[in-house]
Amino acid sequence: MKLRPHTMKLSEKTINLLKNFASINQSILFKEGSSLRTMSVMKNILAEATIEEEVPRDFAIYDLVQFLNGISLYDDHELDFQNESHMTIRGGKNHRTKYFFADPSVIIAPPEKSIELPSEDVSFTLDNNQLVSLLKASAVYQLPDLCCVGEAGAVKLVVRDKKNDTSNEFAIVVGETEDEFSLNFKVENIKILPGTYDVVISQKLLSRFVNENYNLTYYIALEPDSNFK
User: pTM for the whole thing?
Assistant: First the structure.
């Protein structure tokens, strides 16, 4: 399908990315260009990515899952942005959907200014197999916490229940360190796409997860009971 200047088509890669963004916030504000950003309602997760498409104009979607499900009705789709109040989703000559934009003022969107970590105190690479194992163990043992622990010269990622001294634990060694720390996340906040990540954690309760394959970065807040000696 040949695209006109005011139209676009979402690749499978971008659709997968948007499905993940929908798990962070059901709504999204698209901005003109090739950058996508979203932020959770609690403002403790921010995600941003560079996509291969060029979004032709600013617009807001209130229910991102519904929007993506609508696109899935078509084997091949084209999004037309000629109208200011809605887009037209086309699939061939005889099928189309009129999809209205949301009011941008009702969307919780990230601030315009980019985020920078206040410090870079712990760093490691988390590969996809490790990520999958940690999340699977959390589900199997019903463990709510993911802790980045520095002890005995090793950096470990541990899923456990911090409130239960007899909690089951599942741990993976991801690096080396001379420091002692416990930098804590809620597993429910690790809403990241499968893949390999370069992870940097600040003791100032903020982390950065970078997936180069998707040109994708997540900033995830840590829990207040984190400590770094």
Answer: 0.95
